[in-house]
Amino acid sequence: MFRRGLLVVLSGPSGVGKNTLLNLLLARMAGIRYSISATTRPPRAGERDGVDYFFFEPEKFLAMADAGELLEWAHFCGHYYGTPRSYVEGSIARGTDVILDIDTQGAALLKKKLLEGVFVFLMPPSWQALEQRIRGRGKDTEESIKERLNRAREEIDHLSDYQYVILNDDLERAVGELEAIILAERCKVVRNDVAGFLAAFFAKN
To answer: What is d(CA 52, CA 34) in angstroms, rounded to the nearest whole number?
Structure first.
């Protein structure tokens, strides 16, 4: 039974553990791909273009946005982030699920364009745990840390805009819940070619 791919949108504050959760999900769940985001920030140590992000100069990024080549884009901590349109739409049309890791601004834009999206918010176990995680990265200045914490509070305020919430206090349980959400959404009748399935089911041999 043919099914269009799902667009799964995962959001959560910086430091909540989205990357760790996604890596575990993708390692054990078939039929789903991670959509690589485009950004204007410089690569961090170990990051590779086309693997972790598509790294662009601001002029190139904004030209893509103007040309409609990004499904959504937003400005965060001094840099632009966005979702390339062709990769996402092509995968979904072929029946492959795509999961995005984007902020609440980008998720709001996608929600207006793609009503069939599955929107999931990942919450930290506590505010204190989130702050400790951000400070423990050891990669940011104090000014950047404060900006990330302020942004985290703003993002958590948008929790009610999402369909699902997962508390990331236990990684194994959290990834299991995300997997269960995706499996349930795959089984919804409205997401499947029911007419084609029934025609084949009742066809005379």
So the answer is: 10
Residue pair 34/87 in contact (Cβ under 8 Å)? The answer is: no
Query: Based on the number of CB atoms within 10 Å of its own CB, is 186 exposed (0-12), middle (13-18) or buried (19 or more)?
Result: middle
Interval 15-52: pLDDT, tens: 899 999 999 999 999 999 999 889 999 998 899 998 88
CA end-to-end distance (rounded Å), the chain: 18
Alpha-carbon distance of 73 to 75, in angstroms, equals 7
Domain ranges of the chain: 7-35+96-201
Is the CATH number 3.40.50.300 carried by domain 7-35+96-201? Answer: yes
Task: Tell me the two tokens of residue 165.
Answer: 């919430």
Q: Under a CB-based contact definition with an 8 Å cutoff, are residues 150 and 41 in contact?
A: no
Look up the pTM and report it: 0.84
Question: In this structure, how many other beta carbons lie within 10 angstroms of the beta carbon of residue 88?
Answer: 21
Residues in the chain where the model's pLDDT stays below 70 = 114-115, 204-205
161 and 111 Cβ atoms separated by less than 8 Å = yes
Q: For the chain, give me the number of helices (H) and strands (E)?
A: 8, 9
Cα–Cα distance, 91 to 165 (Å, whole number): 25
Full strand arrangement of the beta sheet holding 54-55 = 54-55, 38-39, 79-84, 70-76
- State the amino acid at position 145 in one-letter form: I
